[in-house]
Amino acid sequence: MGEMKNLLSTLESHLATLPVTTSVQLSSGERIGPDDSAVQLNFRSPKALAALADGQIGSVGAAIVEGWVDVKGCARDIMAVATGLLQGNPVELAPTWLEQTVSKAKSLAMHTLTRDAEQIQFHYDLSDEFYALWLDPRRVYSCAYYRDLSMSLAQAQEAKLDHICKKLQLQPGERFWDIGSGWGGLIFWAAENYGVQAHGITLSRNQFEYVQRQIEAKGLQGRVTVELRDYRQMEGVLPFDKIGSVGMFEHVGSAYLAEYFQTIHQMLRPGGMALVHGITAGGVGNGEVGAGIGDFISRYIFPGGELMHISRVLHDLGKSGLEMVDVENLRPHYARTLWAWSDSLEAQLAQAQSILTAQYDADRAARALRAYRLYLAGCAMGFEHGWVALHQMLCIKPDGDLQHGVMPGAQSRYAFNREYIYR
Predict the structure, then answer these.
(1) Cα distances (Å, whole numbers) of residue 368 to 296, 372, 377
(2) Which of 1, 39, 111, 360 lies at a CB distance of 3.0 to 4.6 Å from 253, suitable for a disulfide?
(3) pLDDT per residue over 67-120, tens digit each?
(4) Which segments within 237-340 are labelled E, that is strand?
């Protein structure tokens, strides 16, 4: 009884400091906070209540997904409350030696060929119609590029696709490989606007079948191809002139990151360029966001997903023999992208529920929708605060020729300045 009283006292003091009015209702009916608060939490589980008081936001999120806690309020207000309840910075704590050892063993086990396929299908094969509801018309499921702040999400996604193609200096007739090609946004854009021969690979059956249908609908047979294939199974395929990898290496795993870059090096012709675009950890030592947030993402959204700091990523990139020539951090762009996705989903909750219920039982559909609402808004919050980042890394495979190229010693066609990107 005394512990509960202390818990409620601690929670009440927390609520008073939050940026938006918040109330908590217990299973007994007792309420803390004003009746007309902007965010209202109805707790059915004392364990979840303790997690809230301790700042374990991920555990509270899990309780919401499981239906042990009801939450009312707009997504932005809910995330403001979540941020206010955190006990310190969730990316400051570095892992111990033991934690690093366990993490490496876990990474090795999680990223077999079979498990990677299962983990990708868990997320991306949820429902094409569900994703289409809140993504842009091209279904580009990665950070947009707001070249102009007045851009809509759809315009910013096209700007991102073009930004990548310009960085890679794609030329007509070049063979372009997209590792983890999603719903085909990049391979279609590259083929239609830059005249390349584009080849995508994915582990998602839904995405693979969708892209096949789009190839036929767009009349791009012979110019765009797609395969259900793991990046580690490219035996017998000729090297490519250019390579793109967007939102992919987050699924690779820390134990396999070196092999991932070695594969890019192997599959890239000498003098060719590759662009790797992906989420990186905000902290130098942490592999996931703390306060239970990373655990929530792994459990409900991206099983097997791992984040690494940009310094670790560039280390393994350089070790493979690739040369990094340009790095750009688009972190604020991803915060805006995620808020656009979140706002779109929040505006269509009834339709989203209907789509999911048509494919799954009512309980699974409700749990999935609650998970995605928290995931999109929570990730937007994470990028805003710098707990995670988004980097585009442009690299070359040096060809050893010091005489050709646009400047002496370039060893590729890269211009070694950014003017060509923005012209």
Answers:
(1) 13, 6, 14
(2) 111
(3) 888 999 999 998 898 888 777 676 765 555 444 544 555 555 555 666 555 555
(4) 240-246, 268-281, 323-329
On whether both 20 and 133 belong to a single domain, the answer is no
Burial degree of 136 (CB within 10 A; 0-12, 13-18, 19+) = buried
**What pLDDT, in 10s, does the model give residues 22-54?**
888 887 788 888 888 999 989 887 777 777 776
Going from the C-alpha of 69 to that of each of 25, 43, 60, 373, the distances in angstroms are 10, 5, 8, 14
Token output for 152:
């809509």
Residue type, 211: V
CA distance 2 to 10: 12
Residue 143 is among the residues annotated as catalytic for this protein: no
Strands 69-72 and 224-228: unpaired
Choice among 143, 165, 379, 395 that is catalytic: 379
Residue 39 lies in a domain: yes
Please tell me whether residue 114 adopts helix, strand or coil conformation: helix
C-alpha 206/C-alpha 188 separation (Å) is 17
Residue range 177-202, pLDDT digits in tens: 999 999 999 999 999 999 999 999 99
Residue 144 domain boundaries: 98-422
- 316-357 confidence digits (pLDDT tens): 999 999 999 999 999 999 999 999 999 999 999 999 999 999
Give every CB contact of residue 50 below 8 A, 6+ residues apart in sequence: 7
Instruction: Flag whether 92 is in a domain.
Output: no
Q: Are residues 408 and 354 in the same domain?
A: yes
Pick the more confident residue, 17 or 119.
17
Beta strands at 388-396 and 323-329: parallel, antiparallel or unpaired = antiparallel
Lookup result for tokens 């289409």: 132
CB 66 within 8 A of CB 367: yes
Do 49 and 43 meet the contact criterion of CB atoms below 8 Å apart? yes
Label residue 57 by pLDDT band (50, 70, 90): confident
